[in-house]
Amino acid sequence: MTTTRFAPSPTGYIHVGNLRTALMNYLIARKAGGTFILRIDDTDPERSKEEYVDAIKQDLEWLGLHWDRVERQSDRLDRYAEAADKLREIGRFYEAFETPTELDLKRKKQLNMGKPPVYDRAALNLSEAEKEALRAERGNGVWRFKLDHERIEWKDGILGDVSIDAASVSDPVLIRGDGQVLYTLASVVDDTEMGVTDVVRGADHVTNTATQIQIIKALGGNVPNFAHHSLLTGPQGEALSKRLGTLALRDLREQGVQPMALLSLMARLGSSDPVEPRSDMAELIEGFDVARFGSAPTKFDVQDLFPLTARYLQTLPLEKVADAVAAAGVPDELAEPFWMMARENITTLNDLKGWWELCRDGAEPLIGDEDREFVAQAMELLPEGPFDGETWGKWTAAVKEATGRKGKGLFMPLRKALTGMERGPEMATLMPLLQVIRARK
Fold first, then answer.
1. Active-site entry in 106, 115, 242, 406
2. Degrees (nearest 5) of the Cα angle 90, 138, 41?
3. Where are the domains of the chain?
4. pLDDT tens digits for 188-211?
5. Catalytic residue list contains 115
Protein backbone atom coordinates (compact mmCIF):
# COMPACT_ATOMS: atom_id res chain seq x y z
CA MET A 1 0.00 0.00 0.00
CA THR A 2 1.19 3.51 -0.83
CA THR A 3 2.13 5.30 2.40
CA THR A 4 3.34 8.89 2.67
CA ARG A 5 4.00 11.22 5.56
CA PHE A 6 4.29 14.86 6.50
CA ALA A 7 6.79 15.37 9.32
CA PRO A 8 6.76 18.97 10.60
CA SER A 9 8.73 20.15 13.60
CA PRO A 10 6.47 21.84 16.19
CA THR A 11 8.85 24.77 16.54
CA GLY A 12 6.70 27.27 14.61
CA TYR A 13 3.67 27.67 12.39
CA ILE A 14 3.23 25.96 9.01
CA HIS A 15 4.10 28.27 6.10
CA VAL A 16 3.63 27.93 2.34
CA GLY A 17 6.92 26.08 1.95
CA ASN A 18 5.82 23.40 4.42
CA LEU A 19 2.41 23.23 2.78
CA ARG A 20 3.87 22.34 -0.60
CA THR A 21 5.53 19.26 0.90
CA ALA A 22 2.46 18.28 2.92
CA LEU A 23 0.10 18.66 -0.03
CA MET A 24 2.18 16.63 -2.47
CA ASN A 25 2.50 13.75 -0.03
CA TYR A 26 -1.22 13.94 0.76
CA LEU A 27 -2.26 13.90 -2.90
CA ILE A 28 -0.01 10.93 -3.71
CA ALA A 29 -1.51 8.91 -0.86
CA ARG A 30 -5.10 9.81 -1.67
CA LYS A 31 -4.75 9.20 -5.41
CA ALA A 32 -3.41 5.70 -4.70
CA GLY A 33 -5.99 4.99 -2.00
CA GLY A 34 -3.14 4.74 0.50
CA THR A 35 -2.23 6.10 3.94
CA PHE A 36 -1.18 9.61 4.89
CA ILE A 37 0.66 9.93 8.21
CA LEU A 38 1.09 13.13 10.21
CA ARG A 39 4.39 12.60 12.01
CA ILE A 40 5.36 15.21 14.58
CA ASP A 41 9.14 15.66 14.62
CA ASP A 42 9.44 16.62 18.30
CA THR A 43 12.76 15.07 19.26
CA ASP A 44 14.07 18.53 20.26
CA PRO A 45 12.43 19.03 23.67
CA GLU A 46 13.70 22.59 24.09
CA ARG A 47 12.28 24.02 20.85
CA SER A 48 9.19 21.83 20.42
CA LYS A 49 5.99 23.32 21.84
CA GLU A 50 2.55 21.76 22.24
CA GLU A 51 0.90 24.96 21.02
CA TYR A 52 2.59 24.44 17.65
CA VAL A 53 1.44 20.81 17.52
CA ASP A 54 -2.13 22.06 17.95
CA ALA A 55 -1.58 24.82 15.39
CA ILE A 56 -0.23 22.37 12.81
CA LYS A 57 -3.32 20.21 13.18
CA GLN A 58 -5.64 23.23 12.98
CA ASP A 59 -3.99 24.46 9.78
CA LEU A 60 -4.14 21.06 8.10
CA GLU A 61 -7.80 20.63 9.10
CA TRP A 62 -8.61 24.11 7.75
CA LEU A 63 -7.16 23.01 4.42
CA GLY A 64 -8.93 19.66 4.45
CA LEU A 65 -5.70 17.65 4.58
CA HIS A 66 -6.99 14.92 6.89
CA TRP A 67 -4.43 12.40 8.14
CA ASP A 68 -5.03 8.70 8.74
CA ARG A 69 -2.97 8.60 11.92
CA VAL A 70 -0.65 10.72 14.03
CA GLU A 71 2.80 9.61 15.17
CA ARG A 72 5.09 11.47 17.55
CA GLN A 73 8.80 10.92 17.38
CA SER A 74 9.16 11.69 21.09
CA ASP A 75 7.20 8.46 21.73
CA ARG A 76 9.67 6.43 19.69
CA LEU A 77 13.01 7.21 21.30
CA ASP A 78 13.47 3.54 22.22
CA ARG A 79 13.23 2.61 18.54
CA TYR A 80 15.98 5.08 17.66
CA ALA A 81 18.16 3.75 20.47
CA GLU A 82 17.80 0.21 19.11
CA ALA A 83 18.71 1.38 15.63
CA ALA A 84 21.78 3.17 17.01
CA ASP A 85 22.85 -0.01 18.82
CA LYS A 86 22.52 -1.98 15.60
CA LEU A 87 24.66 0.54 13.70
CA ARG A 88 27.31 0.28 16.41
CA GLU A 89 27.26 -3.53 16.22
CA ILE A 90 27.87 -3.54 12.46
CA GLY A 91 30.65 -0.95 12.68
CA ARG A 92 28.77 1.90 10.98
CA PHE A 93 28.49 4.25 13.97
CA TYR A 94 31.34 6.03 15.75
CA GLU A 95 31.76 8.70 18.40
CA ALA A 96 33.55 11.96 17.54
CA PHE A 97 34.62 14.73 19.89
CA GLU A 98 35.68 17.77 17.84
CA THR A 99 34.37 21.13 18.98
CA PRO A 100 32.60 23.42 16.47
CA THR A 101 35.70 25.61 16.42
CA GLU A 102 37.96 22.64 15.60
CA LEU A 103 35.63 21.50 12.83
CA ASP A 104 35.57 25.01 11.38
CA LEU A 105 39.37 25.15 11.33
CA LYS A 106 39.49 21.77 9.57
CA ARG A 107 37.04 22.95 6.93
CA LYS A 108 39.00 26.13 6.28
CA LYS A 109 42.24 24.18 5.97
CA GLN A 110 40.70 21.76 3.47
CA LEU A 111 39.25 24.60 1.40
CA ASN A 112 42.63 26.36 1.35
CA MET A 113 44.15 23.13 0.01
CA GLY A 114 41.48 22.92 -2.69
CA LYS A 115 39.82 19.91 -1.10
CA PRO A 116 36.12 19.44 -0.34
CA PRO A 117 35.33 20.38 3.30
CA VAL A 118 34.50 16.84 4.39
CA TYR A 119 34.97 15.49 7.91
CA ASP A 120 38.33 13.68 8.00
CA ARG A 121 37.23 10.79 10.22
CA ALA A 122 39.99 11.51 12.72
CA ALA A 123 37.78 10.06 15.46
CA LEU A 124 38.14 6.57 13.94
CA ASN A 125 41.79 6.58 14.99
CA LEU A 126 41.11 7.28 18.66
CA SER A 127 41.95 4.57 21.19
CA GLU A 128 39.51 3.71 23.99
CA ALA A 129 41.78 5.50 26.47
CA GLU A 130 41.79 8.64 24.31
CA LYS A 131 37.99 8.52 24.04
CA GLU A 132 37.66 8.19 27.81
CA ALA A 133 39.97 11.16 28.31
CA LEU A 134 37.97 13.27 25.84
CA ARG A 135 34.67 12.33 27.50
CA ALA A 136 36.12 13.36 30.85
CA GLU A 137 37.26 16.66 29.38
CA ARG A 138 34.39 17.51 27.02
CA GLY A 139 31.49 15.22 27.86
CA ASN A 140 29.96 12.73 25.44
CA GLY A 141 30.77 13.09 21.77
CA VAL A 142 28.45 13.11 18.78
CA TRP A 143 27.67 9.89 16.91
CA ARG A 144 28.41 9.83 13.20
CA PHE A 145 27.28 7.32 10.60
CA LYS A 146 30.19 5.88 8.62
CA LEU A 147 29.37 6.20 4.95
CA ASP A 148 30.58 3.68 2.40
CA HIS A 149 32.60 5.74 -0.05
CA GLU A 150 30.75 4.76 -3.20
CA ARG A 151 28.29 6.42 -5.54
CA ILE A 152 24.74 6.62 -4.20
CA GLU A 153 22.19 6.56 -6.98
CA TRP A 154 18.40 6.71 -7.22
CA LYS A 155 15.67 7.55 -9.70
CA ASP A 156 14.10 10.73 -8.39
CA GLY A 157 10.44 11.31 -9.13
CA ILE A 158 11.12 14.92 -10.16
CA LEU A 159 14.88 15.29 -10.70
CA GLY A 160 15.31 12.05 -12.66
CA ASP A 161 18.56 10.10 -12.25
CA VAL A 162 20.58 11.35 -9.27
CA SER A 163 24.10 10.20 -8.41
CA ILE A 164 26.14 11.47 -5.46
CA ASP A 165 29.65 10.41 -4.52
CA ALA A 166 29.52 9.57 -0.80
CA ALA A 167 33.19 10.48 -0.51
CA SER A 168 32.20 14.11 -1.13
CA VAL A 169 29.86 14.12 1.88
CA SER A 170 30.77 14.25 5.57
CA ASP A 171 29.71 11.31 7.71
CA PRO A 172 26.43 12.68 9.11
CA VAL A 173 25.92 13.30 12.81
CA LEU A 174 22.88 11.28 13.90
CA ILE A 175 23.00 11.76 17.68
CA ARG A 176 24.21 14.89 19.45
CA GLY A 177 26.46 14.92 22.48
CA ASP A 178 23.49 15.56 24.76
CA GLY A 179 21.80 12.43 23.41
CA GLN A 180 19.27 14.18 21.18
CA VAL A 181 18.42 12.07 18.13
CA LEU A 182 18.63 14.14 14.96
CA TYR A 183 16.21 14.22 12.04
CA THR A 184 18.21 11.95 9.75
CA LEU A 185 18.19 8.91 12.03
CA ALA A 186 14.66 9.39 13.35
CA SER A 187 13.28 9.84 9.84
CA VAL A 188 15.00 6.71 8.51
CA VAL A 189 13.81 4.53 11.40
CA ASP A 190 10.25 5.86 11.12
CA ASP A 191 10.06 5.55 7.33
CA THR A 192 11.35 1.99 7.54
CA GLU A 193 9.12 0.82 10.38
CA MET A 194 6.01 2.66 9.19
CA GLY A 195 6.28 1.28 5.68
CA VAL A 196 6.60 4.66 3.99
CA THR A 197 6.75 4.03 0.24
CA ASP A 198 6.98 7.57 -1.15
CA VAL A 199 8.80 10.63 0.19
CA VAL A 200 8.36 14.04 -1.42
CA ARG A 201 10.34 16.94 0.02
CA GLY A 202 12.34 20.01 -0.93
CA ALA A 203 15.42 19.97 -3.14
CA ASP A 204 17.49 21.09 -0.14
CA HIS A 205 17.19 17.50 1.14
CA VAL A 206 18.94 15.82 -1.81
CA THR A 207 22.22 15.26 0.05
CA ASN A 208 20.23 14.04 3.08
CA THR A 209 18.57 11.50 0.83
CA ALA A 210 21.91 10.13 -0.32
CA THR A 211 23.06 9.48 3.24
CA GLN A 212 19.65 8.19 4.31
CA ILE A 213 19.65 5.60 1.55
CA GLN A 214 22.84 4.11 2.99
CA ILE A 215 21.43 4.19 6.54
CA ILE A 216 18.21 2.51 5.39
CA LYS A 217 20.17 -0.25 3.72
CA ALA A 218 22.44 -0.67 6.76
CA LEU A 219 19.35 -1.17 8.93
CA GLY A 220 17.86 -3.64 6.47
CA GLY A 221 14.95 -1.45 5.35
CA ASN A 222 13.34 -0.83 1.96
CA VAL A 223 14.32 2.38 0.18
CA PRO A 224 11.19 4.46 -0.61
CA ASN A 225 10.57 6.37 -3.83
CA PHE A 226 12.07 9.83 -3.41
CA ALA A 227 11.02 13.02 -5.22
CA HIS A 228 12.51 16.45 -4.53
CA HIS A 229 10.43 19.46 -5.48
CA SER A 230 11.97 22.83 -6.30
CA LEU A 231 12.29 25.50 -3.64
CA LEU A 232 10.03 28.53 -3.66
CA THR A 233 11.37 32.00 -4.36
CA GLY A 234 9.73 35.40 -4.18
CA PRO A 235 8.08 36.93 -7.28
CA GLN A 236 11.41 38.48 -8.38
CA GLY A 237 13.37 35.27 -7.81
CA GLU A 238 14.59 36.39 -4.39
CA ALA A 239 15.07 33.91 -1.56
CA LEU A 240 11.78 33.28 0.17
CA SER A 241 13.27 31.81 3.31
CA LYS A 242 13.59 35.19 5.03
CA ARG A 243 9.93 35.97 4.40
CA LEU A 244 8.42 32.61 5.36
CA GLY A 245 7.58 33.92 8.81
CA THR A 246 5.05 36.29 7.20
CA LEU A 247 3.62 33.55 5.01
CA ALA A 248 2.26 31.34 7.76
CA LEU A 249 -1.01 29.65 6.84
CA ARG A 250 -2.82 31.25 9.76
CA ASP A 251 -1.80 34.69 8.49
CA LEU A 252 -3.17 33.87 5.04
CA ARG A 253 -6.37 32.60 6.67
CA GLU A 254 -6.80 35.89 8.56
CA GLN A 255 -6.35 37.77 5.29
CA GLY A 256 -9.30 35.87 3.86
CA VAL A 257 -7.50 33.45 1.54
CA GLN A 258 -9.77 30.47 0.85
CA PRO A 259 -8.37 26.95 1.40
CA MET A 260 -9.23 25.78 -2.13
CA ALA A 261 -7.57 28.84 -3.65
CA LEU A 262 -4.38 28.11 -1.73
CA LEU A 263 -4.49 24.39 -2.53
CA SER A 264 -5.27 25.02 -6.20
CA LEU A 265 -2.16 27.17 -6.50
CA MET A 266 0.19 24.96 -4.50
CA ALA A 267 -0.92 21.74 -6.22
CA ARG A 268 0.10 23.09 -9.64
CA LEU A 269 2.77 25.74 -8.96
CA GLY A 270 6.03 24.65 -10.59
CA SER A 271 4.36 22.04 -12.78
CA SER A 272 3.51 22.02 -16.47
CA ASP A 273 -0.20 22.30 -15.63
CA PRO A 274 -2.04 25.64 -15.53
CA VAL A 275 -3.16 27.03 -12.19
CA GLU A 276 -6.95 27.08 -12.08
CA PRO A 277 -9.24 27.32 -9.05
CA ARG A 278 -10.64 23.85 -8.34
CA SER A 279 -13.99 23.28 -6.69
CA ASP A 280 -12.97 20.48 -4.35
CA MET A 281 -10.18 18.17 -3.24
CA ALA A 282 -11.30 15.38 -5.57
CA GLU A 283 -10.39 17.53 -8.58
CA LEU A 284 -6.93 18.22 -7.18
CA ILE A 285 -6.32 14.55 -6.45
CA GLU A 286 -7.45 13.39 -9.87
CA GLY A 287 -5.21 15.80 -11.76
CA PHE A 288 -2.07 15.45 -9.64
CA ASP A 289 1.11 13.88 -11.03
CA VAL A 290 4.43 14.55 -9.30
CA ALA A 291 6.31 13.76 -12.52
CA ARG A 292 4.85 16.94 -14.08
CA PHE A 293 6.84 19.17 -11.74
CA GLY A 294 10.16 20.71 -12.73
CA SER A 295 13.39 21.22 -10.83
CA ALA A 296 13.87 24.96 -11.48
CA PRO A 297 13.23 27.36 -8.58
CA THR A 298 9.54 28.23 -8.47
CA LYS A 299 8.30 31.80 -8.05
CA PHE A 300 5.59 32.34 -5.46
CA ASP A 301 3.66 35.59 -5.15
CA VAL A 302 1.19 35.77 -2.28
CA GLN A 303 -0.86 38.28 -4.29
CA ASP A 304 -1.79 35.48 -6.73
CA LEU A 305 -3.93 33.96 -3.99
CA PHE A 306 -6.45 36.81 -3.95
CA PRO A 307 -7.80 36.64 -7.52
CA LEU A 308 -7.95 32.86 -7.11
CA THR A 309 -9.93 33.33 -3.92
CA ALA A 310 -12.30 35.75 -5.67
CA ARG A 311 -12.85 33.34 -8.58
CA TYR A 312 -13.49 30.47 -6.20
CA LEU A 313 -16.01 32.45 -4.12
CA GLN A 314 -17.98 33.33 -7.26
CA THR A 315 -18.83 29.65 -7.68
CA LEU A 316 -20.22 29.08 -4.18
CA PRO A 317 -23.89 28.84 -3.20
CA LEU A 318 -25.12 30.56 -0.05
CA GLU A 319 -25.00 27.41 2.09
CA LYS A 320 -21.22 27.27 1.73
CA VAL A 321 -20.77 30.79 3.12
CA ALA A 322 -23.88 31.21 5.30
CA ASP A 323 -21.85 31.65 8.50
CA ALA A 324 -19.74 34.41 6.96
CA VAL A 325 -22.81 36.21 5.62
CA ALA A 326 -24.50 36.02 9.02
CA ALA A 327 -21.29 37.20 10.73
CA ALA A 328 -21.34 40.30 8.50
CA GLY A 329 -24.71 41.18 10.05
CA VAL A 330 -27.00 40.31 7.13
CA PRO A 331 -30.54 39.28 8.25
CA ASP A 332 -31.58 35.76 7.28
CA GLU A 333 -34.34 36.97 4.96
CA LEU A 334 -31.83 38.97 2.90
CA ALA A 335 -28.97 36.45 2.98
CA GLU A 336 -29.67 34.84 -0.41
CA PRO A 337 -30.09 38.01 -2.50
CA PHE A 338 -27.23 39.68 -0.62
CA TRP A 339 -24.82 36.83 -1.38
CA MET A 340 -25.86 36.67 -5.05
CA MET A 341 -25.09 40.38 -5.29
CA ALA A 342 -21.90 40.38 -3.25
CA ARG A 343 -20.11 37.24 -4.48
CA GLU A 344 -19.25 38.84 -7.82
CA ASN A 345 -17.84 41.91 -6.10
CA ILE A 346 -15.60 40.65 -3.30
CA THR A 347 -12.02 39.44 -3.15
CA THR A 348 -12.37 37.67 0.20
CA LEU A 349 -15.22 37.02 2.63
CA ASN A 350 -13.76 39.80 4.77
CA ASP A 351 -15.23 42.22 2.21
CA LEU A 352 -18.82 41.20 3.01
CA LYS A 353 -19.00 43.49 6.02
CA GLY A 354 -18.37 46.58 3.91
CA TRP A 355 -21.06 45.66 1.41
CA TRP A 356 -23.62 45.06 4.14
CA GLU A 357 -22.76 48.40 5.78
CA LEU A 358 -23.41 50.07 2.43
CA CYS A 359 -26.79 48.33 2.16
CA ARG A 360 -27.78 49.01 5.77
CA ASP A 361 -26.50 52.55 6.25
CA GLY A 362 -26.34 53.88 2.71
CA ALA A 363 -23.29 55.31 0.99
CA GLU A 364 -21.83 58.79 1.04
CA PRO A 365 -22.97 60.12 -2.36
CA LEU A 366 -20.29 60.86 -4.95
CA ILE A 367 -21.75 63.68 -7.01
CA GLY A 368 -19.85 66.01 -9.31
CA ASP A 369 -20.89 69.67 -9.57
CA GLU A 370 -22.05 69.10 -13.15
CA ASP A 371 -24.46 66.40 -11.98
CA ARG A 372 -25.97 67.96 -8.84
CA GLU A 373 -29.08 69.32 -10.46
CA PHE A 374 -29.58 66.10 -12.44
CA VAL A 375 -29.24 63.90 -9.36
CA ALA A 376 -31.61 66.10 -7.34
CA GLN A 377 -34.21 65.81 -10.06
CA ALA A 378 -33.67 62.03 -10.25
CA MET A 379 -34.11 61.64 -6.49
CA GLU A 380 -37.52 63.28 -6.70
CA LEU A 381 -38.52 60.53 -9.14
CA LEU A 382 -37.18 57.68 -6.97
CA PRO A 383 -40.12 55.81 -5.41
CA GLU A 384 -40.29 55.04 -1.72
CA GLY A 385 -38.90 51.64 -0.70
CA PRO A 386 -38.81 48.81 -0.37
CA PHE A 387 -37.27 48.33 -3.80
CA ASP A 388 -37.41 45.23 -5.94
CA GLY A 389 -35.59 43.81 -8.95
CA GLU A 390 -37.46 46.10 -11.34
CA THR A 391 -36.99 49.37 -9.44
CA TRP A 392 -33.70 50.34 -11.11
CA GLY A 393 -35.01 49.78 -14.63
CA LYS A 394 -38.28 51.65 -14.07
CA TRP A 395 -36.57 54.51 -12.23
CA THR A 396 -33.83 55.08 -14.82
CA ALA A 397 -36.44 54.96 -17.59
CA ALA A 398 -38.45 57.66 -15.82
CA VAL A 399 -35.31 59.77 -15.26
CA LYS A 400 -34.31 59.39 -18.89
CA GLU A 401 -37.73 60.59 -20.04
CA ALA A 402 -37.70 63.52 -17.65
CA THR A 403 -34.13 64.72 -18.28
CA GLY A 404 -33.25 63.46 -21.73
CA ARG A 405 -30.04 61.90 -20.42
CA LYS A 406 -29.04 58.46 -21.62
CA GLY A 407 -26.20 55.94 -21.59
CA LYS A 408 -23.26 56.59 -19.29
CA GLY A 409 -24.40 60.13 -18.61
CA LEU A 410 -27.60 58.70 -17.16
CA PHE A 411 -26.45 55.61 -15.31
CA MET A 412 -23.03 56.61 -13.89
CA PRO A 413 -24.15 59.64 -11.86
CA LEU A 414 -27.01 57.61 -10.39
CA ARG A 415 -24.75 54.73 -9.45
CA LYS A 416 -22.28 57.14 -7.81
CA ALA A 417 -25.09 58.88 -5.95
CA LEU A 418 -26.46 55.62 -4.54
CA THR A 419 -23.23 53.70 -3.90
CA GLY A 420 -20.45 56.29 -3.73
CA MET A 421 -18.57 54.18 -6.31
CA GLU A 422 -18.02 54.26 -10.06
CA ARG A 423 -18.35 50.50 -10.46
CA GLY A 424 -19.81 47.57 -8.61
CA PRO A 425 -22.73 45.16 -8.69
CA GLU A 426 -25.61 45.21 -11.13
CA MET A 427 -27.78 47.97 -9.74
CA ALA A 428 -30.93 45.92 -10.31
CA THR A 429 -29.62 43.33 -7.81
CA LEU A 430 -28.25 45.91 -5.37
CA MET A 431 -31.26 48.23 -5.09
CA PRO A 432 -33.59 45.72 -3.35
CA LEU A 433 -30.97 45.49 -0.60
CA LEU A 434 -30.55 49.23 0.00
CA GLN A 435 -32.13 50.22 3.30
CA VAL A 436 -31.06 53.89 3.19
CA ILE A 437 -30.53 56.35 0.30
CA ARG A 438 -28.39 59.17 1.65
CA ALA A 439 -28.56 61.12 -1.63
CA ARG A 440 -32.23 61.84 -0.88
CA LYS A 441 -31.34 63.95 2.14
1. 242
2. 60
3. 362-440
4. 999 999 999 999 999 999 999 999
5. no
